[in-house]
Amino acid sequence: MARMSTGVFLELLAREAAAVEFEGPLVAARAAGTPAGALAELEDVKLQALRVRALLERRRRREEELSGLYDTASDLAGLRDLDAVLNAIVHRARTLLGADVAYMTLTDRERGDTYMRVTDGSISARFQRLRLGMGVGLGGLVTQTATPYVTANYSQDERFRHTSEIDAGVGEEGLVAILGVPLRLGSHVIGVLFAANRSERPFAREEVSLLISLAAHAAVAIDTARLLAETQVALDELSAANAVIQAHSASVERAAAAHDRMTSVVLRGGGVEDVATAVTEVLDGALVVLDADERRLAVAGGDAGPELDQVAEAVAASRAEGRSVRRGDVWVAAVVAGAENLGALILRPEHPLVDADQQILERAAQVTALVLLFRRTVAEAEGRVRGELLDDLISRPIGDPDALRSRARRLGVDLDAPHVVVAVGEAVNPAHRQRSFSWAVSYAAAHGGLAALQRGRVVLMLPAPDAGPVAREVARDLGRILGAAVTAGGAGPAVGPDGVASAFRDADRAATALVALGRVGDGASTAELGFVGLLLGQDRDVAGFITSTVGAVVDYDTRRGTGLVKTLEAYFGAGCSSARAAETLHVHVNTVTQRLDRIGALLGSDWQRPERALEVQLALRLHRLRGPADEPA
């Protein structure tokens, strides 16, 4: 019986029968009076066959999706007509997702909205003429956020900004469930690819991924068509000036070689130095690559920079004109990303440049911008990880030192080695804070340390045995970058995760003391300053000093009506003797001991260290001079 039933189901599988047909053998068996045991066995065989059918169906669908993507890639390889390729992509999206309608909108940068480009399965002329503003409707939100969005019922979904025009068009088309994914070209969204149904329907994650893949092909098709159009325009112009083409054939060959070289640099993950080398090998000359601060990032083929005085003016002119500019025998091409100035390429060619050579230089500037942005992205990602580790060392109680050590080792940092902590003072212009932090991240990574932002201060943790020289080096180097005075306080060395937070507090106080002492632009450690500097600065925030030093004790007395402040004063006045302090306060010595334990819990276990004790005494004296209310004994 089992062998016969298996054969029946295999026949059903072989002819790709519908799922309902798999009930036929069971119905026939019941009608024939088959025993219950045999029916159960037949039911098991049926379920196994249905599972095999589902697996085959998934594989068939996957093959269709892959075939669709392959066909789309083939269309791109032989791209001649953009409309035909986009229509094919939209049609495949509708077919592969089993959607009622598929369509594509493109961004109109001049009008700041999007318009319908291609539809498949649409029956409404009004819908086919829709335009969506940025952030309006599902498509406008996808364009604005560069994020896929899906809704099972668009008209009832309050996540989207509904307008009467869009809702009328969608309603006339009868669309209910809509999936939209961005067409991305680099960091820009150039349009949206949609699949929609006229009934409620949840789109599966696999369908979203498939539509994203098709959208990527569509974006490539659009960009390829743009490049082909530009190439066609260039060919038309070149055809009209055939004599000029022949005269400059060598420069065209150089442009092709440069393009291949720079493309290879990007694909293999090369750096700015590789781009500079590729340019000089093609154009014959000396090239210098500068960053936004006019520091040299790379030099190839010799030195092209010393005789160019007005670098900033030339870079500004290149940015304004959108191309390279000539200054004497030197060519300058700005390296920009959007409105951001990333630096410049300075070329001193051995031979006069023609237009194609200038384009090589300009293309090299674009490639350099890509390389710098990628390097920055990698550095920022690593900087965030390093900053989070330093935040955990400074801001949170150390719950698992071994876990912190393990995280640090993955970043190449040994927390059990001596480290100093440097806090950059508040004298840094707030407008420079992000720039300061970016520099600190690079500086710390280069020196095997960490960097973070804490309460508006840039903080670095660096491997070193002495905090003073490191603080002065940070103040000097960062000040040179910002073109402004930078004050830095240092503390340490600290060994182990537990010592970093304490070192940060000391470095923070040292930076504040330097500013109060009028030593803006200097760097020093707590060991070099002492705490007397906290009282010498003009416009000293005495209240802030008291609050940060003994504020927890004062607040505790205020809330609880206790006498912790008087206990501290008596304790220090008695030469740190609990017994003599008890006599002064007329309380039992155990009471003094309990109060001191409470003070330790409020101020930290290191409050009796000489440096902290001096600071606490100064804060108590200032608190008394400012006339606090009498505390209970």
Provide a descriptive summary of the structure in words:
- There is one protein chain.
- With 633 residues, this protein is of the alpha+beta class.
- Helices cover 57% and strands 16% of the residues.
- The protein is built from 23 helices and 16 strands.
- The chain has helices spanning 2-14, 24-31, 36-77, 82-97, 125-128, 137-145, 164-173, 205-240, 242-247, 249-267, 272-283, 311-321, 355-395, 401-410, 433-446, 467-482, 498-516, 526-529, 542-560, 564-573, 578-585, 589-603, 610-625; strands at residues 101-108, 113-120, 131-133, 149-151, 177-185, 188-197, 285-291, 296-300, 325-327, 330-337, 340-349, 419-424, 450-454, 457-463, 488-494, 523-525.
- Strands 3-2-1-6-5-4 form a six-stranded antiparallel sheet. It has a five-stranded antiparallel sheet with strand order 8-7-11-10-9. Strands 13-14-12-15-16 form a five-stranded mixed sheet.
- Helix 4 runs antiparallel to helix 8, helix 13 packs across helix 15 and helix 20 crosses helix 21 (578-585).
- It is extended, with a radius of gyration of 36 Å.
Instruction: Give the fraction of residues assigned to helices.
Output: 55-70%
Mean pLDDT: 80
Order of strands across the main sheet: 3-2-1-6-5-4
Beta fraction: 15-25%
Using the alpha-carbon principal axes, give the shape. Answer: extended
DSSP helical segment count: 23
- Major sheet description: 6 strands, antiparallel
pLDDT < 50 stretches: 533-540, 628-633
Radius of gyration: 36 Å
Category from helices, strands and their pairing: alpha+beta
Total E-strand runs: 16
Q: How many angstroms does the end-to-end distance come to?
A: 98 Å
